């Protein structure tokens, strides 16, 4: 994994890239996902090969996390 941003209470699979100033809290990020510069994710479950562009904010809730399907580009 390549992690330059900050992560808290997350599960990160192999091959994940988290770029500078990205903030992830309470997330499950599956393999080969790319989180862009300055993105903010909270309560997200990301399947494989997802790309989140820089500056994007995604949020779910503790009882209903947001699920991002395999291969999505956001």
Please provide a written account of the structure.
This protein is mainly β and 74 residues long. Helices cover 0% and strands 41% of the residues. It contains no helices and 12 strands. A 4-stranded parallel beta sheet has the order 1-4-7-10, with no helix packed on it. It has a 4-stranded parallel beta sheet with strand order 2-5-8-11, with no helix packed on it. Strands 3-6-9-12 form a 4-stranded parallel beta sheet, with no helix packed on it. It starts with a strand and ends in a 6-residue tail after the last strand. The model has no long low-confidence stretch (mean pLDDT 96).
Enumerate how many helices there are, as a single number: 0
Q: Runs with pLDDT <50, length 5+? A: none
Summarize the main sheet: 4 strands, parallel
Distance between the termini: 20 Å
Rough outline: globular
**Nearest-integer average pLDDT:** 96
Order of adjacent strands in the largest pleated sheet:
1-4-7-10
How large is the radius of gyration?
10 Å
Summarize the SSE layout with pairings:
Blueprint lengths: L1 E2 L2 E3 L2 E2 L4 E2 L4 E3 L2 E2 L4 E2 L4 E3 L1 E3 L4 E2 L4 E3 L6 E3 L6
Short description:
With 74 residues, the chain is mainly beta. It contains no helices and 12 strands. It has a 4-stranded parallel beta sheet, with no helix packed on it. Strands 2-5-8-11 form a 4-stranded parallel beta sheet, with no helix packed on it. The chain has a 4-stranded parallel beta sheet with strand order 3-6-9-12, with no helix packed on it.
